[in-house]
From TrEMBL:
Entry keywords, A to Z: Ribonucleoprotein, Ribosomal protein
Pfam families linked: Ribosomal_S16
Similarity remark: Belongs to the bacterial ribosomal protein bS16 family.
A GO cellular component entry from the record: small ribosomal subunit
InterPro entries membership: Ribosomal_bS16 (IPR000307), Ribosomal_bS16_dom_sf (IPR023803)
Protein name per Swiss-Prot or TrEMBL: Small ribosomal subunit protein bS16
PANTHER family: 30S RIBOSOMAL PROTEIN S16, SMALL RIBOSOMAL SUBUNIT PROTEIN BS16M
Source lineage: Bacteria, Bacillati, Bacillota, Clostridia, Lachnospirales
Gene3D superfamilies in UniProt: 3.30.1320.10
This protein's encoding gene: rpsP
SUPFAM superfamilies registered for this protein in UniProt: Ribosomal protein S16
Biological process according to GO: translation
Entry GO MF terms: structural constituent of ribosome
Ranges annotated as spanning the membrane: none
Provenance organism: Parablautia intestinalis
């Protein structure tokens, strides 16, 4: 089972809010998730995010692959592979 760390869209129309989740790569974007490890809000200036570093490092060490946007968020949070 390939596991990805990606964004799950929440919020209302034209006002997105995202949760950083761990999910099976075959699951739909807003479908079933394994774990929620943080949030990302692009509507604020500057964008805000909160990441549970302990869980993020655990999933990265277990082989979960972050998407491009999540990799950038992790880089700003100081979380490296």
């Amino acid at each position: 089972m390939a596991v990805k760390i990606r964004l799950r869209r929440m919020g209302r129309k034209k006002a997105p809010f995202y949760r950083i989740v761990v999910a099976d790569s075959r699951a739909p974007r807003d479908g079933k998730v394994i774990a929620e490890i943080g949030t990302y809000d692009p509507n604020t200036d500057p964008s805000t995010f909160h990441v549970n570093e302990e869980l993020a490092k655990k999933w990265l060490s277990n082989g979960a692959q972050p998407t491009e946007v999540v990799s950038k968020i992790f880089k700003h949070a100081g979380i490296e592979k």
